[in-house]
Amino acid sequence: MYKTLLVIHILIGIAALSSGAFAIFSKKGGKLHTQSGKIYYTSMFGIGISALCMTLMKWNPFLLAIAIFSTYLTYSGKKSIDNWRLKHAYVPGIKDKIPFYIAFITSIVMILWPITIMMSEHKYFVPILSVFGLIMFSLSRRDIQMYNNADNFLPRNKKWLLRHIGSMGGAYIATCTAFLLNNIHIDPPWILWLLPTAIGAPIITLAIIKWIKKLKISTDI
pLDDT tens-digit profile of 51-95? Predict the structure, then answer.
């Protein structure tokens, strides 16, 4: 069962990496971007589900965290573009907010767990889980703030485009991280955990700044 899941996971991962690349480098809003984005979104959820199943069958808290992290970002990115496409004003309810509160609580666990282990076992190591937890903490907190402000749910609110870029880009970074960890082995291993983020985060930031200027968007929540 595990080997079958692994094969499916790898195939879906290849689809996500390739379609994500097309979505990133194609014209935003164009047919190729939209179609490749749909494949990317579907593939990312497939990766998340298969990764969750595999890490629970063979316990690996770090890869489990990456699966949760990437699935949350994919969901956030998809909801952001859906919110931008609203045709009428919308008031979000508790069902809209629950996934982001779950992500927020999970991020706190991710931050504190490695620190607790270091303190209890008197060992020092690079708290990779805490790094990803801090990122998810920041992003989920901002999502919650946006969902608590009904003014953000007016049709064609361009702020959601920025959230879409940041979330989908972050999910792609997480996928690249998992790919490197499963195919490359170096010492110390934490370099592979953090390298995609170190490279991708500035690129995403520059892209967001570019679109803020291009669309003349106010960044106030």
Answer: 888 888 888 777 777 788 888 999 999 999 999 999 999 999 999
Tokens representing 114?
């490695």
Q: Token pair of 22, please? A: 């097309």
- Taking the CA atoms of residue 139, residue 145, residue 146 and residue 152 in that order, the dihedral angle to the nearest 10 degrees is -160
Give the Cα-Cα-Cα angle 194, 67, 121 (nearest 5 degrees): 65
What's the CA gap between 67 and 208, in Å, rounded? Answer: 24
Count the neighbouring beta carbons within 10 Å of the beta carbon of residue 137.
19
CA dist 164 and 59 (Å) reads: 31
Task: Give the helix/strand (H/E) hosting 94.
Answer: helix 94-121
Q: How many CA within 13 A on the CB side of residue 77?
A: 24
> How far is Cα 68 from Cα 65, in angstroms, rounded to an integer?
5
- Here the tokens at position 136 are 């998810």
Report helix, strand or coil for 91. Answer: coil
Residues 134-183: tens digit of each pLDDT: 989 999 999 999 999 999 999 999 999 999 999 999 889 888 888 887 77
Could you state, in order of their start, the residue ranges of all structural domains in the chain?
61-215
